[in-house]
Amino acid sequence: MPHEALPAERENERRGMVAAVVEMMRFTAPATGRERLGKRVLAALGKVPRHRFVPEVDAGNAYLNTALPIGRGQTISQPYIVALMTELAELGPEDTVLEIGTGCGYQAAMLAELAGRVYSVECLEELAQAARERLERLGYRNVEIRSGDGWAGWPEHAPYQAILVTAAAREVPPPLLEQLAPGGRLVLPLGRPWQAQSLMVIEKNADGATREREVLPVAFVPLVHED
Ligand code: SAH
Questions:
Q1: Which atom of ligand 1 is nearest to the CA of 67?
Q2: How confident is the model over 82-121, as pLDDT tens digits?
Q3: From 159's CA, which of 59, 120, 145, 169 has a CA 20 to 30 Å away?
Q4: Atom 14 of ligand 1 has which residue's CA nearest to it?
Q5: How close is the Cα of 120 to the center of ligand 1, in Å?
């Protein structure tokens, strides 16, 4: 999408947010193994208008490096976490990406800036519809959102070079591993609701074997799933 010019004050806030994320990346590098954001991720972070993704009352807080409520008990993730997960996904411009947990659509917009096609699944129809309209209004044409249980992924568009899950599951949903392309990366928080969770990166190599790595302790809303 075209870069939206912001009023000077908001542009300063946006720069401040990017600076805060850059600083936090450096600070957490011993755990994450990533000291810096790639150029393309950094550019996307400075471009996606986060104030358009939060409720109007919070527009003044949109460029703080914090999570914010978006209604229905859900949140927009902290910009640092969005940037880190995006970095760990290592997206190329031709990649097809799957996101589970669209929420307000902010992470989906970041992915849309970096990948070829983005598919995102949100279990709350109301949030899915609002995100769809928001991304449409902002001019994103390479994102498709469906409402449903993301545990099952979105098999019709698989395989995916990267899959991001933005809600915490107790275990890795097997369908997501199946839908990951050889050479692809699954980035997800694992753990019990409201307890210690770990951000994990699971890589699938060319022969289909997987290798997982724990990146950081995190706190996400639960991935709702009934077995
Ligand atoms: N990606 C968002 C963060 C969303 S918070 C951002 O950019 O800020 C997590 C979202 O996951 C919530 O909207 C919640 O409704 C959704 N969710 C929870 N369980 C889900 C499931 N099983 N399938 C799809 N979405 C789910």
A1: 8
A2: 999 999 999 999 999 999 999 999 999 999 999 999 999 9
A3: 169
A4: 101
A5: 10
Residue 36 is classified by DSSP as S
Q: Decide if 119 is inside a domain.
A: yes
- The domain total for the chain is 1
Q: Report yes or no on 85 lying in a domain.
A: yes
Residue 79 in domain: yes
What CA–CA distance (Å, rounded) separates 193 from 203? 24
**Interval between CA 79 and ligand 1 midpoint (Å):** 16
How far apart (Å, rounded) are the C-alpha atoms in residues 58 and 214?
A: 33
For ligand 1, which residues put their CB under 6 angstroms from it?
A: 74-77, 100-104, 106-107, 121-124, 127, 149-151, 166-167, 221, 223-225
Structural domain that includes position 111: 8-218
Nearest ligand 1 atom to the CA of 108 is 7
Q: What is the pTM of this model?
A: 0.96
Query: Does 77 participate in catalysis according to the annotation?
Result: yes
CATH number of the domain encompassing residue 51: 3.40.50.150
164-219: per-residue pLDDT in tens?
A: 999 999 999 999 999 999 999 999 999 988 788 999 999 999 999 999 999 999 99
Ligand 1 test: best mutation among 197, 224, 225, 226, most atoms within 8 Å of CB? 224
Closest atom of ligand 1 to 225 CA is: 22
User: Residue 121: its pLDDT value, please?
Assistant: 98
